[in-house]
Inverse folding.
């Protein structure tokens, strides 16, 4: 399928938890500067697939992988890949907002400070401001940058976490159910943010909420039992899915 | 694996209501044609009352469909079915109106002696009625093949309408006193032609619902 430029490609990818195969022969192109949603029933491998894109699964015992994940044509599973550098390029936002027990400023500056070239104070302030603006939370926090991020509401904390991911200038942002712990208003803000972020970033989002996938994504991947059942434009998937399995899942026919 | 869904029960109820309305529209058309052919004026008057019931059902169906969309946010086939129902709903309502138009023309024509024995108009009526029935059958049984056959019949009705128009124009040229009756018959043929068009629309919706294909305006050849 032709979907514009493809910076990210998953190729014949398999993942095992010990002997259990959690992902089977996944191949898909993730189009650049678009939102790709991964949907599917609980336990189908959505989050596992998402975490495979920045090698987060390695932290789990007994995980082995086969196949490739190509970022800008380079396999991220090669031996000589710098995982820290990889995770700078491929940032991640989790289900529950997880700010560090530090100030708002320090939360956003954290990734930048961890890098090799820590910028001067003024430059760092610029980075924090840009990131908070991009994450659509600057106006809400600009007068209390040095207060603890823990004082913020859940929705605000989640946008701080997005700003933290943006601060290191990633290419790809992975989001694992970023709005599932938020109320409808905070959810709407995150969705609006995702919509604007795709001008600059490639976004992959895992969501349980079908309507959210329909609202925010350009492409949708439907996974079941570790296999990619269907991948295509979201609009087509929601009006005329190609597979009976997809149709049954999105219309709620699964028990 | 298949789970019973609340939305299915609601969709079924809307479909049933739509079919009740369709049955009333079919009845109006057959009564209108009957009253025209038999010059039965009492029957023509009864038609107006049935159309009010159709109008009421149209609004009910529309409201229920909107409510269902708002509450269930349907996707895929469910979404296509609901959009199809909303469109078919207004098609059927219009068909009822055309039946009323035919009855009104019949009442006017009844005040004068017949202009001529009717030949093409009964043929048009028969074709249009069959198209309406088949389009509704194709909806009930979700039969896109039957729906396609309905679309293909439309051209015959169009041809008969043109033929009727040509014939009645010669009557009008020759005898000015025939003009009002000829105009009445032309209007009737025009209404029958529209019933055939709307039945074609219903069939096109059935194809969209079952196959997600848009064939209207000759998009698919």
């Amino acid at each position: 399928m032709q979907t514009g430029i493809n910076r990210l490609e998953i190729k014949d990818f398999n993942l095992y938890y010990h002997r259990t195969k959690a992902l089977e022969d996944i191949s898909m192109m993730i189009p650049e500067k678009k939102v790709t949603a991964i949907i599917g029933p609980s336990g189908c491998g959505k989050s596992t697939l998402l975490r495979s894109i920045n090698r987060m699964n390695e932290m789990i015992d007994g995980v082995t992988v086969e196949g490739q994940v190509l970022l800008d044509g380079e396999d991220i599973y090669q031996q000589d890949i710098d995982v820290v550098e990889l995770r700078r390029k491929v940032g991640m936002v989790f289900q529950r907002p997880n700010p560090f027990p530090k100030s708002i400023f320090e939360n956003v500056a954290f990734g930048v400070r961890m890098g090799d070239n820590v910028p001067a104070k003024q430059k760092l302030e610029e980075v924090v401001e840009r990131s908070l603006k991009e994450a659509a939370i600057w106006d809400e926090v600009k007068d209390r940058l040095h207060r603890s991020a823990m004082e913020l509401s859940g929705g605000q904390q989640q946008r701080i976490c997005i700003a933290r991911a943006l601060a290191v200038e990633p290419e790809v942002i992975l989001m694992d159910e970023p709005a599932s712990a938020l109320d409808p208003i905070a959810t709407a803000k995150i969705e609006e943010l995702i919509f604007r972020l795709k001008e600059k970033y490639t976004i992959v989002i895992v969501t349980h909420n079908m309507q959210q996938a329909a609202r925010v994504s350009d492409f949708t991947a439907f996974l079941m039992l570790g296999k990619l059942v269907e991948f295509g434009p979201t609009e087509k998937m929601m009006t005329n899915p190609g597979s009976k399995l997809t149709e049954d899942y999105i219309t709620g026919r699964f028990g | 694996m298949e789970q019973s869904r609340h939305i299915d029960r609601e969709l079924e109820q809307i479909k049933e209501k739509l079919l009740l309305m369709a049955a009333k529209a079919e009845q109006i058309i057959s009564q209108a044609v009957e009253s025209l052919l038999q010059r039965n004026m009492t029957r023509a008057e009864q038609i107006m009352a049935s159309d009010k019931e159709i109008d009421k059902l149209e609004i009910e169906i529309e409201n229920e469909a909107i409510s269902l969309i708002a509450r269930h946010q349907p996707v895929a086939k469910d979404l296509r079915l609901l959009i199809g129902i909303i469109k078919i709903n207004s098609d059927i309502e219009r068909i009822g109106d055309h039946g009323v138009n035919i009855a009104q023309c019949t009442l006017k024509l009844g005040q004068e002696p017949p202009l001529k024995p009717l030949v093409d108009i009964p043929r048009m009526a028969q074709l249009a009625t069959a198209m309406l029935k088949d389009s509704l059958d194709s909806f009930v049984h979700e039969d896109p093949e039957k729906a396609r056959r309905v679309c293909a019949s439309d051209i015959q009705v169009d041809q008969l309408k043109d033929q009727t128009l040509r014939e009645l124009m010669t009557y009008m040229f020759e005898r000015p006193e025939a003009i009002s009756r000829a105009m009445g018959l032309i209007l009737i043929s025009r209404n029958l032609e529209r019933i055939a068009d709307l039945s074609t629309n219903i069939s096109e919706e059935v194809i969209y619902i079952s196959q997600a294909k848009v064939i209207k305006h000759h998009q698919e050849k």
